[in-house]
Fold:
Amino acid sequence: MLVANVANAVQHELPKLPYAPDALQPYMSRETLEYHYGKHHRGYVDKLNELVKGTDYADAPLETIVRSSSGRVFNNAAQVWNHNFFWRCLTPDGDTAPSRDVARLIAKVFGSVNEFKQAFKAKALEKFGSGWTWLVRTQDHRLLLLNTDDAENPLKFGAAALLACDVWEHAYYIDYRNDRAKYLDAYCHVLNWRFVEETLAQ
Ligand code: FE
Structure:
């Protein structure tokens, strides 16, 4: 989200959460969201604004920065983009089912929606250290599971992000300590299939 200011630079903003900070309980606590959204995500936004000030990136949209930058600018820009995307992958409406068309598409690649969830969790569990697990669509229209390190994301690989799970410890340490598997089970309970339908339609 961008707001032009008088100096023609753009200020990156923390987007509003699409639900209340306690809406994902008991799967993700209010405290987790207060830290993860309110401190970590906000921190990336603030840092990005500080880093791009007075540089060639000062008036560039977020996606342009993610696609063309490196180093600290990339790390913060990509983390802003990743978190903007991540919150939309979750819903307080609970374990909804995908539409029939999306379920069919998922089943074609993964066997069934349930097998997709198992495969997604297994992929996220095998990620060593900080990073992200994604469902992506490649340029040749294949659906794939992808793990990325640190702030890396599918934009860098020319793939479209369809679903993301943050597997940095800051995403689950308050609620699940070091138990990533429990966090992934919780994630599946609040997975937003309506959002996946939207990303698939783009
Ligand atoms: Fe995070």
Remarks:
- The CA atoms of residues 130 and 192 lie 23 Å apart.
- Strands lie at 2-4, 10-12, 131-137, 143-149, 160-166.
- Residues 100-201 form a domain with the minor pseudopilin epsh fold fold (CATH 3.55.40.20).
- The pocket of fe (iii) ion is lined by residues 36, 40, 83, 166, 168, 170-171 (CB under 6 Å).
